[in-house]
Each structure stands twice: as C-alpha cells, then as structure tokens.
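so i finally got all the pieces together for this one. its two components total, 756 residues if u count the protein bits. some of the lines might not be protein, just check the labels. i wanna see the whole assembly predicted at once instead of chain by chain like last time, that was a mess tbh
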Amino acid sequence: MLPEKVSLNLSGQRFHVTYRVRGTDATLPVTAEAICVEQTVEFPRDLLPQGDIDTQIVGHMEAMTQADDSHWDVTISYPIEITGGELGQLINVVYGNVSIFPGVRVTNLNLPSDLANRFQGPRYGREGLRTLLGVTDRPLLCTALKPMGLSSQELANLAYEFALGGIDMIKDDHGLANQPFAEWEERVRLCADAVARANGRTGGRTIYMPSALGTSMSLRERAILAKSYGAQGILVPPGIVGFDTVHQLAQDDEFGLPIMSHPSFLGSFVTSQDNGIHHGVLFGQFMRLAGVDASVFPNYGGRFSFTPEECTSIIHGTEVPMGTVRSIFPTPGGGMTLDRVPEMLQMYGPNVILLIGGGLFRGGSIVDNTRRFLDLLQ
Amino acid sequence: MLPEKVSLNLSGQRFHVTYRVRGTDATLPVTAEAICVEQTVEFPRDLLPQGDIDTQIVGHMEAMTQADDSHWDVTISYPIEITGGELGQLINVVYGNVSIFPGVRVTNLNLPSDLANRFQGPRYGREGLRTLLGVTDRPLLCTALKPMGLSSQELANLAYEFALGGIDMIKDDHGLANQPFAEWEERVRLCADAVARANGRTGGRTIYMPSALGTSMSLRERAILAKSYGAQGILVPPGIVGFDTVHQLAQDDEFGLPIMSHPSFLGSFVTSQDNGIHHGVLFGQFMRLAGVDASVFPNYGGRFSFTPEECTSIIHGTEVPMGTVRSIFPTPGGGMTLDRVPEMLQMYGPNVILLIGGGLFRGGSIVDNTRRFLDLLQ
C-alpha cells in the first residue's frame, strides 16, 4: 500500500530545463504536464500520496512562451535533490523518458550553484590544459592519427612527424580500436614513445591521447593502462561509453589526465529541430559536467551539417557559468584546412582547439604543414 | 609520411549494414560514398595509400534499392576485422559519425556468425531467465517500485507486497537513484531483504533488480555491491551508462546476474524517420550484443509514440539469429493495464515480460491485483 501522505525535507532549490515543445494551444498544457510527471514520478497523478511528492517532486511548469506557429518554450523546474548529485541521474531527469516524445527538445539547462558545485567537472579545463601544454594565449592545434589500416609503427611514425612539427595535441582517429593490423596496446605504446622522442628532440610538450575504445576491459582500466604506456590524455566517445562512465573516469585521481570527447553516436540528438538536445547543452554543458576538458564537434562548412549559429551555441555551452565547473575548449573538426584558419580565428577566437586531419597531409611534408599551420595561429 | 602501398591480411568476411538514405538520384551516390569513407578511414580518398586500405577497409556499396520518392535503402559492407570484435567499435562503425548526417538511418544489421560469435551476449537470455524464475511457458510479469519520493522502507513494503502476490520480477523505477529520501544502498538492501522474506513465505522465486544509477562509483562496482545486498539482477540505461559499459558488465563473472535495459535517453534514435536506428536493431540486436537479458521499451498504445509495427520489429530483433548470441525477452511497458492483457498476449505471444507499474495500484490491494494479473497469464 502507498502511504496516504508524504512529507519530505527538501531544500526548495530547483534546477530549470527549457524544452521546445511542438504543439497547439490545446495540446501544449497536456504535453507540459506529461513532462512534469514523466521525468519524475512516472505514476498516475491521481494515485499519488498527498503532500510533497505531488507538490514538490513532480516538475513545476515555470514559464511558457510561444516560439513560432507550432512551437513553445516550456521551462520546467525540478528539485535538486532528485538528481542525488549524480550526472547519470541528472541526465535521466533532464531528458531520460521524454527523449521518446517526438516533439520535445531540450534547449536550455540552468543549474543553481549548489547543484553545479556537486560536480567536480573538468580536471584541467582551459587554463589547466594551457599550463600543461605551455601555450598561453594562441589557439591550440590537434590532429588525428589516421587512416585506419596503417600498422602501429606507421601510425607512430606519423605521430613522430606531427610532434616534430610542434603540434600541441595528437589523438587517435576515433575509429582506431583494437584492430589486428594495429593492436591497441602496441599502438598506444609505440605512439606514446614516438611523441616522447620527438619532444626530447624539440623540447616541445606535444601530448598523445589514444582512443578509449578497443579492449575487453572497462574504460577506467583502459585509461590507466594507456597512462602506464605514456599516454598523456584520452579520447572518449560519451555516446558509446556513456556520459556516466566518463564522469566516473574524470573523478579518478589515479588516472588524472585530460579527457577529450568525440561526438560519435551522438548525432541523433542534434539532427532534428523537434527532438534531442540543443548543441550547446549537449556538446558544451553536458561535456563539462562529465569532466571533459575538450569537446570535439563537427565544424560548420565541413562535411557535416552544423551551422555557424549551432557552433556558436557550443562555444557558449563550453563557458557559460555553472558554479565552480571550469570552462573547456570547443574543438571543431572536419574539413579544416590551412586557408580556413583566418575565418576560424574570427569565429572562435583564441580559446579553441582546431582539429585538423587530412588537411595536414596535402601538398608538403607533415612537419612543414604542421609548422605552417602553427605559424598562422601565432 | 604515409606509406605508398598497404597490404593487409584480412579474412574477406564482411558484415552488412543497411541505411535508409534520404536523397535524389543525383545526391545518393555521393552520400553512399561518404558513408563508406566516414565510417572507416575518415580520410581524403585521393590521399590514401594504394592497396587494401582503399579496396578493403573503406566500406563497399553492396546494394541500393529505392524505398519511396525520396529514400533509398543502401547496403554497405565492412570487413569484420575493423570492429576488433568489440561492441563499442562495432557501434562506432555502424553509426558513429554518420549519426550526424541528418538523412541517414540504420534499418538493418547483418553480422556473419564469425563476428557475432565474438560476443558472449546475454548470460541468461530467454531460456536462462525462465529457468531462474521457474516459469516454463507463460509470459513473465514485472513491476517497478515507484513513485520517487517514497522512503526506502516504503518502497521495500511495496516490494514485499508485489512478491507476496507472486510477481516474477521487481525492478526499481529507473528514476530511483541516490536521493536523500531513499538512499541507494539502504534502498537496495531493504528491498532485497523484503523480497527474500516474501519468497520465504510463499516459496516463490521473485527477483529484485535495482537501478544501476545512483552512486559515485563505476557501473561494475555498483552492480557487485547490489549483488552483495541480495539483488538478483540489475536495471541499466545503456543510453546513459553506455552500451560499451553494459557489455563489460555482462561479461563479468563476478557479477553474473541478469541485466534488464531501460530505454532512457535513447528516444532520439527512434523518433525520426530520417535519422537514428530502427527500433528492432536498437532495442533488439544492440541490446543482445551488449549482453542484456530483457529489453524494456515503450509499448504501443500507451503514453509514448511507438506503433504496433515498431514493437513487432523489436520482437524480431530480440530473436533474429545472430550466431550463438541468445534470444532475449522483449519487455514492453507504459500504459499496461489488466484489460489490455488479452491484446498483449495476442501481440507478443508467451515470450514476453509485461511491465506494469501504476496499473497494479488501481482498484484493489497490490497483492490481489498482482494475483489477478498473473491469473490472466496462465
């Protein structure tokens, strides 16, 4: 039997989520009420015990404004206690079940400091990463080891050349896993060694961040193993390994290295105007809460579909105040070429990591191309 | 420098993914080629070394048939080696980057046995779960402890009543995490104890599966801790903890209990006809490959948007042959009521877990309602 009445000792502090809801004057209140219930008690409201479950736990509709002919912006608040201060459950409340509602999209997330401060957030963030790399104010340059199909030694040779050219960061292409032609452990070891040798020769501080996919062990075990081989960071796809899992790793002091996120398998959240999560919330705020230091996303004008406005919203999400949670680097990639650098600098300013892959292979040696690209960033 | 030519010693075995692609006669070949490159080498094709990377690693366009005026079904094959036999990387290849393409949706996944057999899959599956529960041929009945806001003791009292009524499985509502009014460890302990006491009284075999979200530790640590408190399975949201992470847990012999998946945060993959992953692939095949034994999804005719055809495709996905990977239970929930049971039996047949929440609280005691529901399933 359910109790007749429930009193809870809640703080009264609430966090706010704005949903863009498709509908009409008639359907809108129904959908808004459905979100309030679905994201919390998932229970017929008439059967709820009297008291705080009904009045406090169930979401509150705080504001409703019309966005266009068929869409409304509906802001709903939830008590901070229902997250338990955990990222997995925060995501669950923000967009767990209503992700299945076709006409409901998350457009804004507003956490009070008391909730945001429960999250350690990025260990490095913009400032920490700059200190680690010894680069005070210019944009950072990152490349990816590719194409899939090269041997570990061939990939390590590329890493050596990029590092000789003075690049700031080298990551595995996100498709490098544990393929028989370049097994994960061998690759991580050889590439980390190659970067260390090049750094020894140049006095540089290039870091190597292998992909986290590729072995039959947990993300944490892989990350610690990569560190033991000399990797100085890790590339993770939160869509595949889970935001919750990334969050655990980021808090792990034994690991303690920078984390770069890859957008793989997250595209379906941002390809529809009528469902999903706005770019800045997903690739900015969620990544920061998960403890990511640099968030890779598809640059506009490349081979993907993001608009300049969507990329601007990501910049905003990487730095919008959230209690003590640090700002991180937006890391646009895809279709980056030397001749687009001035445009990129204008768009992103200095606080960006430019991710360039194929573009550093075209028309010259890797070392020369890397130096030329870096010169443009000074 | 890239090598000029690369020879790889590949088996020649390939797996097939069918994508529904929006486009015209003119754009279609461009999109198909883009998928072949994007999901593998992510590299300008003209710069690739000669040999096997270009001819084998890059996806092969195997078939293309027109689906309607603006959509085509494009089947692309990839060498099984590029998955490294890992689920995370398989997902990465199937739909990592192209999830960001607005007009590309996964509609079919076909793995040769040599690849499917690399996955241990569900530890229990349909047969194992039936043996565990001692139910040979009727549909299984599951409920969820709710609403959020009850104390651990109040939730345990509900669990006791459901188990007294003889229900097969009790899971936490997926929104129960580590809230101050029902802390995770206390709740798991009290609910597991309550179910054990009820089983002792009835001689029944009800199992309790707590939610995996809710503590600052890894999924594995939470799952093992839950087991130590007497839980006999676990409820996981792969959308939040990651398919890759669930896959690790399912292979963990120290855990070794049934896994039920929850669709939270996965809705955006199935709300669009032009992007995402078909229901049967996502809630059937992906869950099985991840080692899930029972896959929860929104039933048609409830408060969500799935159609009967989409639910039928999930049934198919839970049992379509995939090497040695076991069949699992489709677990429809949402809006389940006693009067819908005959319709559910006709739709799903005996190999289903019916998930009913609020419906067992209405019009009678929990024990009586549970017994009445079970009677309908005999």
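Chain B touches chain A through 102 residues (CB under 8 Å).
The CA atoms of residues 170 and 208 of chain B lie 5 Å apart.
anyway lmk what u think
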